Every structure is written in C-alpha cells, then in structure tokens.
Amino acid sequence: MNREAALALVCQYTQSESLRRHMLAVEAAMRHYARRFGADEETWGIVGLLHDFDYERWPDPPQHPLEGAKILGELNYPVEVIYAIKSHADYLTDCPRLSPLDKTLYACDELAGFITAVARLRPEGILGLSPASVKKKLKSKGFAAAVNRDDVTRGAADLGVEFDEHIQNVIDAMTTIAAELGLTGTASPPNE
After folding, report:
1. Domains: count for the chain
2. Does position 188 have pLDDT exceeding 70, yes or no?
3. Is residue 187 part of a domain?
4. Which of 35, 56, 77, 143 has the maximal Cβ count within 10 Å?
5. Model pTM greater than 0.90?
6. Structural contact between residues 73 and 67, judged by C-beta atoms closer than 8 angstroms
7. By C-alpha distance, which of 10, 189, 21 is closest to 120?
8. 190 falls within a domain
C-alpha cells in the first residue's frame, strides 16, 4: 500500500477534478491529524485519499462505499483502511466508527468540502480563512446546502476536538496544498 498506487486508483475511477480535489483535501486533513495523534501518516493519508474513489461510478447508497471496499479488498488493502472508509457512511449501520482513524475520516470529510466552498467565495481563497468565517457560513442553510451541518458538528464532537480548533486544523492542512486544490484565490499570482 502506497500513495502512488492509491492516487492511480483515484484517477482510474474518478474523472471529476472537483471530486479528486476533495479527496486530496481530506487526505491532507487526515495526514495532519495522524501527526497530531502519533498515528501512521501514510495509512491515514491513504484512507483520506481513497474514501470517495468509487463515488463517481456508484454514487447511490449503499453501493458507495461498498463497491470501493470490494475493490480495495481485491487489491489487498488492510482491513483497517477498508473499515474506516466504510464507516464514513452513516447508512452502513454495521460499521460504526470505533477507532480514531474512523472518527477522523468522518470528522474531516464534510468539513473539508464545506471549507472548499467557503474558500471559493473569497478573493484570497483559503489563505487567511478563519474558523469564524466558516461558522458564519455554516449558519446560512442555503449555502452549500448539500453539506450536512449535523455531520460537521458531530464529527468534531466524536473526535473530541473543540469545534473551532477542528475547523482551524482542517484549514491549516488544506492550506499546505492550496494550489493543488485550486484554492489560492483570484488574488494569487497567475503562476501559482
């Protein structure tokens, strides 16, 4: 199991640039938390990178993430990786989030998507984005309406990280790859 192979799998199954960027954002957040928790950064990063690789082909529950889990099983990915990916789907009641890996993926998934939506509105992109700005947009039910606000807050609570701190952690992680995520904003130099 290595990142190069995981990224190749993402590219094989996902054509959407925005979905690929989402998986990269979640990977960055997972790596951040792995360092914070003293966990294996490569494993956690790969979980973030692969968590939605099957979504474009099988978007309907429960096919997503079960079809992806089958593929990962055939490729001999570790059980903990497959389980964590399955556990990010609330509708799979036989896969409760038990480990820090499971809880972190759930906590980072929706929030990374929401932060992306907020950053796209700002001339600076994600640069300088604050938890207060993210929380203000969370209150606007019409903004990024597909993001489940309860999932965002429940994820941080289950992870045991204060909400503002969790938002800042995900912002910080995503900022490290802002150019790759297309979140440097319109104020950025054209070569970025």
Report:
1. 1
2. no
3. no
4. 77
5. yes
6. no
7. 21
8. no
pLDDT at 34: 98
- CA distance linking residue 68 with residue 188, whole number of Å: 37
Q: Residue 151's closest CA among 97, 99, 101?
A: 97
Q: Is the pLDDT of residue 189 over 50?
A: no
Indicate whether 186 belongs to any domain.
Answer: no
Q: Residue 170: give its domain's CATH number.
A: 1.10.3210
Domain, as residue range, for 113: 3-181
DSSP code per residue over the chain: --HHHHHHHHHHH---HHHHHHHHHHHHHHHHHHHHHT--HHHHHHHHHHTTTTTTT--STTHHHHHHHHHHHHTT--HHHHHHHHHT-TT-TTS---SHHHHHHHHHHHHHHHHHHHHHHSTTTTTT--HHHHHHHHT-TTTTTTS-HHHHHHHHHHHT--HHHHHHHHHHHHHTTHHHHT-S-TTS-TT-
Mean pLDDT of 163-174: 98
Q: How far is CA 126 from CA 10, 64, 174, in A?
A: 24, 29, 8
Place of tokens 């938390």: 33
Instruction: State the pLDDT at residue 1.
Output: 87
